């Protein structure tokens, strides 16, 4: 019985020693690389806060659109007589693009012009007779109405005849055509697309909380998915109201595309400057510790770590702007902060 008691006593002591060893080993493993104890102090890295210039930018997604774009169609029906453009080439405003056969319209125009001449002569004769009181005013008015009707008919046929020749409404690049010479076209027949790409529209939307900062004429930068080159644009139009469904405000900017590197329909990464702060407090992201009601940071106060609740603002990839809670000259702790507690003695290694 005594031997059994000694055996269980030794076993329990061994288990206690093993547990104590594991706890000690785990404590060493979990100690951060940059946090080393020197005596009773914890070695950490820190930074003395200085006021810095900070550009607050908003990153958005947008779409490039052609400045002007139409689908060419014929306003009259008929057989295509000639095509005067090459696919994918640039055309100038007023340039003839294609012609529809107008032989019937010309014949109709000749007919109505003859009728107009006859109506004009009848009106002249009626005027002479009216002056001699040989006819009534009513008869003269009828002759005059016939002349005006003939003139209107001539103008109508002339207008239709002018539509047989289709010209470019603006300068741009013409796309792939959907017709050939001899094709019978109607106003519903698509011919080709004409796109002005010398300038491109950039359409994007911003969250409603930034609406008050937006104004026409503001400059921005953007890049596309097919290139890392940065382009500039200027806001020229803003929607008058926020979209209720998305809680965003849509706006458009215009960008030059003289070199033709940008294409309508492509995705754009937009960087929109909101404001430039001359004296901002910036801290590394790793210095901030999330808490229930926001974020906190550790500063050095009398050789000890002191936690301070801070209010944060905009951020970059590695830095966060702090709006309140700390001030210029404070020494913030940037590493080993997860092992710190309020009042922990620290030895700070300052870094620039």
Automatic annotation (TrEMBL):
Q: Which Pfam families match?
A: Beta-barrel_RND_2, BSH_RND, YknX_C
Occurrences of domain YknX-like C-terminal permuted SH3-like (ranges): 281-348
Name one molecular function that GO assigns to this entry: efflux transmembrane transporter activity
Q: Name one GO cellular component term.
A: efflux pump complex
* Chain ranges of the Multidrug resistance protein MdtA-like barrel-sandwich hybrid domain: 69-194
Q: Where is the CusB-like beta-barrel domain?
A: 202-272
What the entry lists under Gene3D superfamilies is as follows:
2.40.30.170, 2.40.420.20, 2.40.50.100, Helix hairpin bin
The UniProt entry's sequence similarity note says: Belongs to the membrane fusion protein (MFP) (TC 8.A.1) family.
Give the protein name, as stated in the record.
Membrane fusion protein (Multidrug efflux system)
């Amino acid at each position: 019985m005594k031997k059994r008691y000694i055996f269980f006593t030794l076993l329990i002591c061994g288990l206690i020693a093993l547990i104590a060893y594991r706890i000690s080993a785990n404590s060493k493993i979990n100690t951060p690389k940059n946090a080393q104890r020197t005596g009773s102090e914890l070695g950490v890295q820190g930074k003395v806060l200085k006021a810095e210039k900070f550009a607050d930018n908003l990153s958005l997604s947008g779409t490039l659109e052609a400045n002007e774009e139409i689908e060419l169609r014929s306003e009259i029906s008929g057989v295509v007589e000639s095509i005067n453009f090459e696919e994918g080439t640039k055309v100038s405003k007023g340039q003839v693009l294609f012609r529809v056969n107008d032989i019937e319209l010309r014949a109709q125009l000749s007919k109505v012009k003859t009728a107009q001449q006859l109506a004009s002569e009848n009106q002249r004769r009626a005027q002479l007779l009216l002056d001699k009181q040989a006819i009534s005013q009513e008869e003269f008015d009828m002759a005059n109405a016939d002349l005006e009707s003939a003139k209107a008919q001539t103008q109508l046929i002339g207008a239709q005849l002018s539509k047989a020749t289709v010209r470019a409404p603006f300068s741009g690049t013409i796309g792939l055509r959907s017709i050939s010479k001899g094709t019978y076209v109607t106003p519903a027949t698509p011919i080709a697309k004409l796109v002005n790409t010398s300038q491109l529209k950039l359409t994007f939307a911003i969250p409603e909380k930034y609406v008050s900062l937006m104004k026409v004429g503001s400059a921005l930068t953007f890049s596309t998915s097919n290139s890392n080159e940065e382009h500039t644009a200027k806001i020229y139009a803003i929607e008058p109201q926020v979209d209720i469904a998305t809680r965003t405000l849509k706006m458009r900017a215009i960008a030059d595309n003289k070199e033709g590197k940008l294409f309508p329909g492509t995705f754009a990464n937009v960087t929109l400057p909101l404001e430039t702060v001359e004296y901002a407090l910036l801290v590394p992201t790793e210095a901030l510790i999330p808490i229930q009601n926001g974020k906190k940071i550790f500063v050095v106060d009398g050789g000890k770590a002191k936690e301070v609740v801070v209010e944060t603002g905009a951020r970059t990839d590695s830095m966060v702007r702090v709006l309140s809670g700390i001030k210029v000259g404070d020494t913030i702790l940037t590493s080993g902060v997860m092992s710190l507690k309020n009042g922990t003695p620290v030895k700070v290694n300052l870094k620039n």
